């Protein structure tokens, strides 16, 4: 993950390609061999506030953000559930993890007061937030409700 997109290696030739945030909703192909590249199918860790801001502002997909910290037991319990969510919604949502211990300024910007907290961003704007650990199905229900405006 960088300020322009998500880097993925081609499964055929190994070339590293960038999936541009603004085109995540489209099918991508390897720039070297033309192989179709799968959309991100796992949570993507945010390496910096600048990268998070770039993804949030430019992503053509809604973003489900997990605000977490390594010392948080419930956060560690949610991690495998987020893996399931990301795999099941690859190409539909981008699942992003923000380590609030490493990037406290992001937590402060979004006024994160407890972890784990999940937030849904669409078109760069936060549309919903929820705190606490939950199974994959409940995370999916939360995100779907946030994106469709249903409760």
Structure characteristics:
151 residues; alpha/beta; Glutaredoxin; two-stranded antiparallel sheet; 9 strands; globular
Description of the molecule:
The protein is an alpha/beta fold and 151 residues long. The protein has one domain: Glutaredoxin (3-Layer(aba) Sandwich), CATH 3.40.30.10. The chain has 4 helices and 9 strands, in the order βββββαβαβαββα. The protein has a 5-stranded mixed β-sheet, sandwiched between helices. It is globular, with a radius of gyration of 15 Å.
Indicate the low-confidence ranges by residue numbers.
none
Radius of gyration: 15 Å
List the domain count as a whole number: 1
The residue fraction in helices comes out at 25-40%
- Helices and strands, in order, run as EEEEEHEHEHEEH
- CATH class, please? Alpha Beta
Reported CATH architecture: 3-Layer(aba) Sandwich
Spatial order of the strands forming the largest sheet: 5-7-6-8-9
> Would you tell me the overall average pLDDT?
94
CATH fold description: Glutaredoxin
Distance between the termini: 32 Å
Please indicate the percent range of residues in DSSP E strands (runs of 2 or more): 25-35%
**Treating each run of at least 4 consecutive H or I residues as one helix, how many helices?**
4
Structural class: alpha/beta
Q: What would you give as the CATH superfamily?
A: Glutaredoxin
**Total strands:** 9
The 3D shape can be described as globular
Please specify the SSE layout and strand pairing:
Elements lengths: L4 E5 L6 E5 L7 E2 L6 E2 L6 E2 L3 H10 L4 E6 L4 H16 L5 E6 L4 H6 L7 E6 L2 E7 L4 H13 L3
Parallel strand pairs: 5-7, 6-7
Antiparallel strand pairs: 1-2, 3-4, 6-8, 8-9
């Amino acid at each position: 993950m960088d300020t322009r997109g998500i880097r993925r290696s081609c499964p055929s030739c190994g070339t590293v390609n960038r999936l541009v945030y603004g085109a995540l909703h489209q099918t991508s192909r390897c720039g070297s061999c033309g192989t179709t590249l799968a959309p991100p199918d796992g949570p993507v860790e945010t390496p910096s506030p600048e990268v998070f801001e770039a993804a949030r502002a430019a992503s053509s997909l809604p973003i489900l953000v997990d605000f977490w910290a390594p010392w948080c037991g419930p956060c560690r319990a949610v991690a495998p559930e987020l893996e399931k969510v990301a795999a099941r919604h690859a190409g539909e949502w981008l699942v992003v993890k923000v380590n609030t211990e490493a990037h406290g300024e992001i937590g402060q910007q979004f006024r994160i007061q407890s972890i784990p907290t999940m937030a849904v961003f669409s078109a760069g704007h936060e549309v919903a937030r929820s705190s606490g650990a939950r199974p994959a199905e409940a995370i999916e229900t939360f995100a779907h409700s946030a994106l469709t405006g249903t409760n």
